[in-house]
Hints:
The chain is of the alpha/beta class. It folds into 2 domains: 22-327 and 425-460, 3-Layer(aba) Sandwich (Alkaline Phosphatase, subunit A); 335-420, no CATH class. Helix content is 43%, strand content 15%. The strands form 4 sheets. It has a 10-stranded mixed sheet, sandwiched between helices. Strands 9-14 form a two-stranded antiparallel sheet. The relative contact order is 0.18. The site of zinc ion (ZN) has 6 residues, from helix 16.
Amino acid sequence: MKRRNFFKNTALAGAGIGVLGACSSPQLALQQEKKKAKNIIFLVSDGMSNGTLTMADTLRYRKDGKASVWLDLYRDNMVKRSLMDMASASSIVTDSAAASSSWGGGHRIPNGGINVDRGGVEYTPIWQKFKRAGKKTGIATTVPVTHATPAGFCTNSRTRNDQAGIAKKYLDHGPDVILGGGQNYFDSSHRKDGRDLYADFENKAYQVAKNKKQLNSINRGNILGVFDNEGLPYTLDLMNNKDIEKDIPTLAEMTQKAIYLMKDHSRGFVLQVEGGKVDWAAHANDAGALLYDQMAFDDAVGVAMDFALQDEETLVIITTDHGNANPGILYGKEVNENFDRLHQFKATNDWILQGITPNDNVEFVRERIAFANGFGITKEEAKDLFNYYKGLEKEDGLYNYKNLPFKKLSRIQESYHSIGWASGNHTGDFVELASFGPGNHLIDGFIRNTDLHYIMLKATEVIV
Length: 464
Ligand SMILES: [Zn+2]
């Protein structure tokens, strides 16, 4: 896995004073305040509770001997740290659509919509404002590119669920770089209207990539890269399956490519990077999926920081849109050994549960979990789990996700890996926000979600 290298890349590392000394120098801080941001990289780990950030850092340190990039930015005093209130217009607990719209449109709207308020009022999304100001715009995500978080920066839609409609809207005023999942919303065989949106994008001078090889071969111009039908596979499943690994880029690779394609634009670029499946894993209480995807997001933070440190004209914002499920490492005698079992994980709970059918047996369930997690559960536990499959029907070769015993499996795993969960849904916690580079002095210690919209415009001196 890629590790951060910004210390070894700086002259300061050799001088032995560290970046801490540099960033806390009053002169440098002043210079940074005066400078305008040419670029913005906005990184959002979707649905990242504080426990997720903590556990990914602890896991990475105990496994690789190096902590996470994000928390090292705190440890080394490299960034400004703030808390942000993410409430929506309709609820103290936001969904991703209202959350992204609060940053994207500068207004709190009810949950479920994309920059559309009560009464149908539409707010102009921020990537459109930047596009008008002459900047290149981009999105890179591990979920469909038409999903709530990228859409909130790019477009308007009464409902987040109209992903086929959102894909079409990207044609008119969409970002220059579009990377992630969601073939179902572009491919003529999946779209209800039968329209081939890939052809439409090609007619607008986009280059289309559907696998990693094609992505690697594109080195200039606009790109639509869509690498799976819906979300991309979880990182943990990707790491252990060479067949899919060769076709699907990581979030860090997509971030790297997006920056590369836009960095030389004379008027700068703005890029949103989303670790979207952190949220999906939290909904499913799937510890392996959650933490390996959070670490993959952290790799993308490393890529963004490496660029920003060299470029010196890029405002980097690292945050989440809401907590989800509030997981944590639970006290107990064996907690260290239990938590370290995560090092050996080979597959997600999604992989475990999707692969069991009513025709299998209790022993098969135990073997599958032993393979994925490296520990054997008891016969009783396996029996409990297997009972859920009686009467379950598969649709299109896949189970209805909601009917699978994700909660049950995570309760069983809890005594083996010592990770507990408060729920399977979003939480109303104030969220972490780290910022680096020109303009970060505009971000106070505690802000409202909508403030970020205006801060991004002010930092770049874009007048709208
Ligand atoms: Zn969610």
